[in-house]
Amino acid sequence: MMDVIINTSENYRLDRVESCLEKIFDDMGGIEKIIKPGMRVAIKPNLLMAKKPEDAATTHPSVVHAVVKLVQKAGGIAVIVESPGGPYNIPLLKMVYSKTGIEQVADETGAELNYDLRVEKLNNPDAEYLKSLKILKPLYDADLIINVAKLKTHRFMVYSGAVKNMFGSIAGLEKTDYHLRMSDQESFANCLIDIYLATKPRVNIIDGIIAMEGDGPSAGVPKYIGCIFASRDAFACDYAALNAIGVDYRKVPVMRIAEKRGIFNKDNINFLGVDLEIIKPDSFDVPALHDKKTGSRFAAIRFIRNKFRPQPEILHDKCVRCGKCVEVCPPKAATRDKDKQIVIDYKKCISCFCCHEFCPEKAIKIKRNTLRRFLEYRRFNS
Ligand code: SF4
Ligand code: SF4
Q1: Does the CB atom of residue 323 touch ligand 1 within 6 A?
Q2: Of 176, 219, 289, 249, residue with least CA distance to 4
Q3: Could you tell me if the CB of 322 is within 6 A of ligand 1?
Q4: pLDDT tens for residues 316-343?
Q5: What spacing in Å lies between the alpha carbon of 358 and ligand 2's midpoint?
Q6: What CATH number matches the domain at 2-288, 3.40.50.1000, 1.10.3860.10, 3.40.50.11440, 3.30.360.10?
């Protein structure tokens, strides 16, 4: 059986988050069983982009702070490691650390902030797709990794939590290459699972105190849930978080495929701590549940689904022409026209929604096809 521990914290006050996480580690058998003095512990938050903590797009600094303190108390050396979206360079890392409040965490705790841009090749025997891959060197060098994810919706993968967070082990724009090579939900889910299996975080934590609903992972709306989830197994941790927000795990490609691959079994989970029923919000908006389905083996069905799949649309009144969408678009479908206005070539677009994810101005909307909208209307109103 795999334990998942759920504990509440009504806000991000540091003392409250610290006692919440202390209890979680006690329920895991004590942090000293996991971390030995002198161990180098890589803490991997979700620092998707330079957003303020209250936007709920990134792991809250109080949660990272509390984890760092616990690691240090056990004698470990804490280093905070992340590859945000966009190019992997020092100016971008500095900007992201500063805006997300993580720089202040490092100042206050003495934790190291990673600026080492090297990567290391790793063999991944349990992989389905990525038998070898390159991950950030400080993750490779660490004695153990603590994965500190954020509970969010995700327009492409439905949900973003513990498994998805380890995608940030891949350096900068190499991530767009993964999107390009594995452009449908099923193969991208396999890719995320393979990255998680390669990096093997020893502890997985999800910051669900204030989650993100709606147009996640960056343009959604903060939603209070008031709890933190933790497990040694990221799938079990995600399963608990999905239960809390009322999403059937089989609707989430990563979970469905992990079950198919035999690496996740919901019947092997033992819930400890707070009862999930107590923390469930009245509603939680997950727009991707109404978007496209996973790829089909049948070419005709795949063709039709492809024809009517949701696509990004630039809201030119909001767009500041920063070019971030052009930078991250894997197949180069988003470009500038002769007037520097952003345009999308829908023949090239693979609906990965990286542009939507990284647009700092919420200037990209996901438009659903009229026929699909009509069919959904019929489905939900019949
Ligand atoms: S990322 Fe957003 S604001 Fe920047 S150019 Fe693209 S659409 Fe415009
Ligand atoms: S335009 Fe946006 S959704 Fe389409 S391929 Fe580029 S990044 Fe992905």
Answers
A1: yes
A2: 249
A3: yes
A4: 999 999 999 999 998 999 999 999 999 9
A5: 11
A6: 3.40.50.11440
